[in-house]
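A quick aside before the break. I want you to see a complete sequence-to-structure record at least once, exactly as it would be stored in a machine-readable document. Don't worry about memorizing anything.
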Amino acid sequence: MHNLAIALKINGYEVTGSDDEIFEPSRGRLAKYGLLPEKEGWHPELISNEIDAVILGMHARPDNPELLRAQETGVKIYSYPEFLYEHAKNKKRVVIGGSHGKTTITAMIMHVLKYLNRDFDYLVGSKLRDFEVMVRLSSEAPVMIFEGDEYLSSPIDRRPKFHWYHPHVALLSGIAWDHINVFPTYENYLEQFSTFMDLMEKDGMLIYNSEDEELAGLVFQNKNKIQKIPYQTPGFEIKDGTSYVIDGKSKVPLKIFGRHNLLNLNGARLVCHQLGIEDKKFFEAVSGFQGAARRLELIARKGQGRLFSDFAHAPSKLKATLEAVKEQFPDRQLFASFELHTFSSLNSHFLEQYAGTMDKADRAIVYFNPHALKMKRLPVLDKNQVKKAFGRNDLQVFDDAGEMTRWLKNHGTPEDIFLMMSSGNFDGTELKMLAIQLLER
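That is the input. The structure line, written in tokens, reads:
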């Protein structure tokens, strides 16, 4: 939401906003653009007919006093995705969806377009190098690239965000059950992706990961008159710690690694085809792509040692990330720390989905914050329950972040690989400082 506010301010609109809590980096970025509210909280007296529109984020509740005031006055209320669709409805819309990989694929496409000096608008779910904000809106760009999130649009609009966008070109990266608080059954979750395909523009182009059997089955069953193009993991090799993708007789060195990222790259390549970009130009551009923030992001390296940060939180993401790191560094001891942070991961009924996901780690650690359980109104988790769910008798389970980091310092060496995976922040653990403590002893 704060990125959208900044994008509108850059475009010359008068923008105000509210929130009951504002944290970094949002606070600092809002202040930089003169958008930080004078005081936090909800102030319905500021809502009047003089406002052109209200854009409603998911954090607000249906009984939010400012929302109720806007409904009383008849001010136009948009959900976040609805507003973006209204902006882009006369542009070519490209939507990247799926349970995993969508941020990375979107970022790859954006990197290539920027490298080739193409004009485009975008929405992406992570801060990217060389992009000031995570949203760009313009009147001139002929194309808009969307990261298509399947989560709900707003407290008063319960449809998934990506159902709003009606793409001309879409990519689906795979399906793995997530967001059980709003999609309580796997079948209900699958239905959202079928509906997404149904909502594509006539004669649209769907690019899909055919290695995902569940997704391939949904695509096969779909009756919408769209073109369907499968993609798979391309040929690649790893040499001296660098991954190369094989393009015909050429080997293109990459700054990223991991089978899942090579799969993502191949999907991005086919999307770029639909935007008129030939393979030679694509590989020239993508060879410089360094990844999105917190997607196997290298926080620090010292000699042989590395510390990576990753946003992995769903079981499939966790497993793919661990496999990628172990494949890249097969002879090194891998310490993998994972935080249970989302509603799904903290739910005792969902925990069994994590069975076997951390098997590739030499030393596996799971952390959860009891305060997060209280905030999500979930029952207390038992450490033995967590250990049993992951299926590792040697799993280390912590509910105190300081205790977890002390264990890492006592058991790791500066030559090891450390992987910190969370959609949260390990209760405020500063990863750069942790890297110094682990790698520079």
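Two observations worth writing down. The first strand starts at residue 53 and ends at 56. The chain has a mean pLDDT of 94. We'll return to this after the break.
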